Amino acid sequence: MSRNAKLKRGVGITALVMIAITFWLGLYVTPPAEVMGNLVRMLYIHPPMAWIAYLAYGITTAASLLYLWKRTRRREWDLIAAASAEAGVFFTGLTILTGSIWGRPAWGVWWTWDALLTSTAVLFLLYLGYLALRQVPMSETKRGVRSAIAALVAFIDVPIVHESVYWWKTLHQTPSVLNPSMNVEVHGSMAWTLLLGFVAFTMAYVWMVWTRYETSKRQAELADLEVEQAILERLAVEEVQL
Q: Sign of the CA dihedral 79, 130, 125, 174?
């Protein structure tokens, strides 16, 4: 096994262990909150998942910008953008799901057209569209350019999602962690468990993107070899005919 593969496996195992510890601390060690009771335990996974969605789309946007700039245009940036977007869609879906599970006992409904929830659902659909665009048959360069532009357009919704609780002041409360003053409103074992959740899911994101990127790169290189082989075979046939 190569050093790269060992390192990636180490990241994956560490992420898995840290997520398991986060669940254990969240379910059995940390106390219930005074107001929210045991419902507060969703706090240890819901905000970290939302953070990963922001991070993933940020990486997709940065990689897309590097691909659009001709001086730095490389296949690798396009593949990283796509891999990160896939992870972002996965974690956005989990964010919506865990938020819905929290919302049922807290608000009495699984879903409501709150500003934050609605803009998050729009974000989810925008990046699903980005991934769908990548499946349209076209040349690699054209696909990369169009996908990069789509990623930049979709990212406009990210700050809207985060600021929606301040702009429209609907049902969803303001962030307790990523707030403008950065004053974390949880302390003690709850704060440490929450911090562990952020680190654990970040490592899981790194492992996911790393694995998907390597798979996509091998697929692209295999496609290049198949095209090259087809060209060689065609040239050989033409040479025989001459």
A: positive
Q: What's the rounded Cα separation, in Å, for the pair 22 and 25?
A: 5
Q: Give the phi and the psi of residue 33 in degrees, each rounded to 5.
A: -80, 155
Q: How many C-beta neighbours within 10 Å does residue 89 have?
A: 21
What's the distance, CA 36 to chain centroid?
28
Looking up tokens 């905000």 gives: 47
Residue 33 pairs in a beta bridge with 37
pLDDT band, very low/low/confident/very high, at 189 (cuts 50, 70, 90): confident
Per-residue pLDDT of 48-59, as tens digits, reads 999 999 999 999
Quote the DSSP letter at residue 198: H
- Establish how many alpha carbons lie within 13 A of residue 42's alpha carbon, considering only the half-sphere containing its beta carbon: 18
| Tokens of residue 155, six digits | 């990212």
Nearest residue to 27 via CA among 15, 37, 41: 41
The per-residue pLDDT for 208 is: 97
Q: Is 110 helix (H, G, I), strand (E, B) or coil?
A: coil
Instruction: Return mean pLDDT, the chain.
Output: 90
Position 119 pLDDT exceeds 80 = yes
46 and 201 in contact (C-beta within 8 Å)? Answer: no
Q: Provide mean pLDDT across the span 171-181.
A: 66
173 DSSP assignment: P
24, 213 in Cβ contact below 8 A?
A: no
Q: Are the CB atoms for 201 and 98 separated by under 8 Å?
A: no
Number of H helices, E strands in the chain: 7, 0
